[in-house]
Specification:
- The protein is built from eleven helices and ten strands.
- The protein is an alpha+beta fold.
- It folds into three domains: about 5-115, Acyl-CoA dehydrogenase/oxidase, N-terminal domain (Butyryl-Coa Dehydrogenase, subunit A, domain 1); about 120-230, Butyryl-CoA Dehydrogenase, subunit A, domain 2 (Beta Barrel), CATH 2.40.110.10; about 235-380, Up-down Bundle (Butyryl-CoA Dehydrogenase, subunit A, domain 3).
- The strands form three sheets. The chain has a four-stranded mixed β-sheet with strand order 1-4-5-8, covered by helices on one side. A four-stranded antiparallel β-sheet has the order 2-3-7-6, with helices on one face. It has a two-stranded antiparallel ribbon with strand order 9-10.
- Strand 2 (about 140-145) and strand 3 (about 145-160) form a beta hairpin.
- Helix 5 packs antiparallel against helix 6 (about 105-115), helix 7 (about 230-265) packs antiparallel against helix 8 and helix 9 packs antiparallel against helix 10 (about 350-355).
């Protein structure tokens, strides 16, 4: 059992950290305050191979695995979770759905420009009435003239406004319930396909989140993704990998908050000495460091299992659940260590805390993760 990165993995970690410090860190608070989605980063992300991390070079990707991918998301999120979640949604949701279940023609048409960074991807599952119960999708797709007419909406969609390509699901046979939901690829400019309300969020404010609306949107049959009726089933498989992304996002945010608190504790003087000299602060830092390391190990276990082709439903949910909840805790402790300054925007602790909360909600709430984990361990017991 190896716990060390290869030289190549170390180089990837270092290069992404240097990029994040140089290109993202100077703008973090400005982007957060203005809710600016940094489209100007896209060419730079593409140049580093971060728009197609987990896809083969033949499709314009970087040909890396999930271990490298998790490392990349962590390093980006350590500086700004908004960029981390943006890269994650583009890679593991939209692009990966096409890679896993698309035809060769669909991969050439849609995946190649996504992986190479020429196009930006979005993925739509959640609806106003279908959140944790994603099988309760209301959007419909009805056959017509060799294609489908789609009506409905999706909300909380990353890149809803700027996306060139959007993978979304709709009901094609209501009687079959979850086996009657199909996936489709929507292209920017399609008549009847448009972005709607942009959300004014607590955290991750530089990550674009909005709704998309389908109003008699005609989609040719060649844009149906995967087998008819398998869209929901396939989406659940995509989320197995996506939850590794959220674990990495959570670990990165927690790491950033921990480092800021550690620095502050060494600088802040009280009673004639730095507050890091007091046991109360030392215990907080010790707990934070231990929790982050434990979450990181769960994350890498799931990533490694994904790379070797093993089922990761339980492990990715465990990693996502634990990492997201310790992230919120670590970020809150970072605020506490900063004291009154932690409650101001003069220091980064408050932003890390705001960003961390989404990790316990997105791609399945903590409650849903516990349901998944319980189901998996009870099935194994049989």
């Amino acid at each position: 059992m190896e716990f060390e990165f290869t030289e190549e993995q170390k180089q990837i970690k270092t290069s992404v950290r240097e990029f994040a410090e140089a290109e993202i860190a100077p703008h973090v608070m400005e982007w957060d305050e203005t809710q600016h989605f940094p489209v100007e980063l896209q060419p730079k992300l593409a140049e580093l191979g971060l728009t197609g991390v987990i896809f083969p070079e033949e499709y314009g990707g970087a040909g890396m695995g999930y271990v490298e991918y998790a490392t990349i998301i962590e390093e980006l999120s350590r500086v700004d979770g908004s960029v981390g979640i943006s890269v994650a949604a583009h890679n593991s949701l939209c692009s990966n759905h096409i890679y896993q279940f698309g035809t060769e023609a669909q991969k050439q048409k849609f995946l190649v420009p996504l992986a190479s960074g020429k196009h930006l991807g979005a993925w739509g599952l959640t609806e106003p009435s279908a959140g944790s119960d994603a099988s309760g999708t209301r959007s419909t797709a009805v056959r017509k003239d060799g294609g489908w007419v789609v009506n409905g909406s999706k909300n909380f969609i990353t890149h809803a406004i700027h996306a060139d390509t959007c993978v979304a699901v709709a009901v094609t046979d209501r009687a079959k319930k979850s086996k009657g939901i199909s996936a489709f690829v929507f292209e920017k400019g399609m008549k009847g396909f448009s972005p709607s309300k942009k959300e004014n969020k607590l955290g991750l404010r530089a990550s674009e989140t909005a709704s998309v609306v389908f109003e008699d949107c005609y989609v040719p049959d060649e844009n149906r993704l995967g087998e008819e009726g398998q869209g929901f089933v396939n989406a659940m498989e995509i989320l197995d990998g996506g939850r590794i992304s959220i674990a990495a996002l959570a670990v990165g945010i927690a790491q950033g908050a921990y480092e800021s608190a550690l620095r502050y504790s060494r600088e802040r003087q009280q009673f004639g000495k730095p507050i890091s000299a007091f046991q109360a602060i030392q215990f907080k830092l010790a707990n934070m460091a231990t929790q982050i390391d434990a979450a990181r190990l769960l994350m890498y276990r799931a990533a490694w299992m994904k790379d070797v082709g093993r089922k990761v439903t339980k492990e990715s949910s465990m990693a996502k659940l634990f990492a997201s909840e310790i992230s919120v805790n670590v970020c809150e402790e970072a605020i506490q260590i900063h004291g009154g300054y932690g409650y101001t925007k003069d220091y980064p602790a408050e932003k890390y805390w705001r960003d961390s909360k989404l990790c316990t909600i997105g791609e399945g709430t903590s409650e849903i993760q516990r349901i998944i984990i319980a189901r998996e361990i009870l099935q194994q017991a049989i």
